[in-house]
Design brief:
The protein is mainly alpha-helical. It has ten helices and no strands. The longest helix is centred in the N-terminal third of the chain and has 24 residues, at about 1-25. The chain starts with a helix and ends in a 14-residue tail after the last helix.
């Protein structure tokens, strides 16, 4: 019965999915997301892998146009039981936060990757994102440790981080008005 339910759900999702590119091209992002949410909430699609797949497809379309896509990746991640889809959604989520320069969201996505998909944590792409988070949070020792696996940009910055790590904070100048 579950296989039949999945097949019916997939057929409905496939019939709708063709509209996604047109909706995106017409700048109907919010409208498309409302329609996706309504469709995946319907009884015949709710709690199926087809629902996760539709969010995954939408996230991919948004990401391909360099649009914010974190909510769509999060929906895909939350709705699937498939380990490969979860990994793809987590990477997409991290990429989206990275592209939007959202260091808090990126840090959370990277923590999820480390916990749920540790095999991805040491990939050059994830290492580069972890490097940027460490540098952003001024964890210079961690940034230096990650630099070697984080690509040429990180390697180029590593000597600067090494120099900064030997510095110490200076007291703020005295306020002349307070004297």
């Amino acid at each position: 019965e579950q296989a039949t339910r999945e097949a019916v759900a997939q057929a409905r999702v496939d019939a709708f999915a063709g509209e996604l590119t047109a909706l995106l091209g017409a700048e109907e992002v919010a409208g498309a997301e409302r329609r996706i949410a309504d469709l995946v909430a319907s009884p015949e699609i709710r709690s199926t892998e087809a629902a996760a797949g539709l969010w995954l497809r939408w996230a991919g379309l948004l990401a391909a146009q360099e649009r914010p896509s974190a909510p769509a990746w999060a929906h895909a991640y939350a709705r699937t039981r498939d380990a490969e889809v979860r990994r793809e959604a987590l990477l997409g989520l991290a990429r989206s936060f990275h592209g939007q320069h959202d260091s808090t969201g990126l840090a959370h996505a990277l923590a999820l990757i480390s916990a749920e998909a540790p095999e991805l944590a040491d990939t050059p792409e994830v290492q580069a994102m972890r490097f940027k988070i460490a540098a952003h949070h001024r964890d210079l020792a961690e940034a230096q440790r990650l630099a070697a696996g984080a690509g040429p940009e990180a390697l180029a910055v590593a000597p600067v981080l090494a120099a900064l790590s030997h510095g110490r904070p200076h007291p703020a100048p005295a306020d002349p008005a307070a004297a």
